[in-house]
Amino acid sequence: MTDRDDNHADTARGLPDHEAGHSHGSRRGYLTGFILSAILTAIPFWLVMAGVLSVQTTAIIVVVLAFVQIVVHTIFFLHVNTRSEGGWTLVALVFTAIIVLIVIGGSLWIMYHLHGNMMPMAPPPVPATAP
Known about the structure:
- By secondary structure, the chain is an all-alpha fold.
- It has a domain at 3-86.
- 66% of the residues lie in helices and 0% in strands.
- The chain is built from four helices and no strands.
- Helix 2 (27-50) packs antiparallel against helix 3 (55-76).
- The termini are far apart.
C-alpha cells in the first residue's frame, strides 16, 4: 500500500484532510504571502500619501493592486487551487464570484436607471412674508 493509498483510506474513513496527511501550507508559503501582502499594501499607501500621480491614475492603480491582493490571499492563505478538495474549492470560489458580480452589477444598473427615470422633486415652498 502506497502513501497515497493510506491518505485516501484515511479520508474514506471520515478523517479530515489535515489528519490524512494533506498539507495546509508551509512556512515559506505563508511568509511569501505575508511579504506580498505587505508590499501590495505599502505601494497604494505611498501613492496616496505622496500624491505623485494624478487622482484618477492613483485610484486605478489602487483598485488593480487590491484585486492582486485578493488573489494573493486566496492562494497563499485560503489555499484555493485546483488541487485542494479535488478542485471543488476553486469551483465554489468562481461560483461565489459570479453571484457577487451579478448582485453588484445588477444593483448598480438598477440605481443608475432609477436615477435617470425618477421624477424631479418639486422645490420646497417659499414661506410667505408678512407686509
